[in-house]
Design a protein that fits this description.
By secondary structure, this protein is an alpha+beta fold. The protein has 4 helices and 5 strands; from the N terminus they run ααββααβββ.
């Protein structure tokens, strides 16, 4: 879904689209097969936690999870998340997919930065802190 949208994003979405299209992307999937069509995208091998653990030891920028609550949960459960960058959109739904399941581990966070976009979305950056 992301690969079909961001390469053709509107000019006003450039602050998000440009880095998504330019930077390397590591895709966790049980259904896709290489080669992937999005520039700079590669498929992670099975055992995603081990693959991410290896990526974290390499030189380079931060790793980000976009569009996958299931992957975020896996990485949180394996203590591979240093922080969260959340986009909170001004939209109320009567239902939908939860980001975190009931009964999860308490994970205190500290707000490091926040910005409100011209459309009212909030971009919030948190670091995970000790419990």
């Amino acid at each position: 879904m992301l690969a079909g949208y961001w390469p053709h994003a509107k000019p006003e979405e450039a602050p998000v689209a440009e880095p998504l299209n330019r930077l390397p992307k590591y895709v966790a999937s049980t259904t896709l097969e290489p080669p992937l069509s999005w520039d700079n995208a590669s498929l992670l091998p099975p055992g995603v936690a081990d693959a991410v653990r290896a990526l974290k030891t390499e030189d380079g920028g931060d790793l980000h999870v976009i569009g996958s609550a299931q992957l975020a949960q896996t990485l949180l459960n394996d203590d591979l998340v240093d922080g969260l960058r959340l986009m909170i959109d001004p939209l109320v739904l009567g239902g939908g997919k939860r980001f975190l399941p009931d009964g999860g581990v308490k994970r205190p966070m500290q707000l490091m930065d926040s910005t409100v976009t011209s459309r009212g979305a909030i971009l919030a950056t948190y670091t995970l802190t000790a419990a």
